[in-house]
Design goal:
alpha+beta; seven-stranded antiparallel beta sheet; 5 helices; Alpha-D-Glucose-1,6-Bisphosphate, Chain A, domain 4; single chain
Amino acid sequence: MHRRAVPTLLLLVFAAAMFWPIAAAAQPAMIPRIGRAPHPASETYIILKNYFSDTAVSGFTLISADPKTRTIVAKRTGIDSATWSKWAYCKMGAGNLISSMTQASVTVNVKVEPSGYSNSYVTVNADFEGTYSGLGANATTQQCISMGVLEDNILAAAGVKQP
C-alpha cells in the first residue's frame, strides 16, 4: 500500500507544479470596488463628475459622463512610477524582466445607483495598462492588476466611508 502512495503523491506534486502558474495567471485585472455614499444618486453623480472634470484635483481627463445612466468614464496618462506602484502592478514574463515602463495609463468606469432616498451605491472599475520597452526597439503594452487604492480614493471622493 505504501508503494502505491508514493507514485500518487509524486503525480499530485507534478500536476500542481504544472498547473499552478495557470491558476496564478488567472487573477482578474479589474475587480470592481463598491461603496455606499451618503448622498442621493443624482448628487453623488454630480460630485464625481465635478471631481473628474477638474484635472488639477483628480489628475484625470473626463471622457464621458451620462446623467441618465449616471455613468462616468475618465482616463489618466503619464502616471509617475511612485503613484503607479501604489495603484497597480504588472505581471511580466521572464523575457520582459529587464524591461522598463515607458507609459502608464488607467481608465476608470464609475456607475452610481440609487440606494434608498438619501444614499447611493458607487461602483468603480479601473483598467490599468503599462507599456514596457526593453533592450530592443519593441514595446509591449500589458494590462496590469489593480491594488484597489485608486478605486478607494475615488469612493472617498464620493463620500464613501473608508474602513
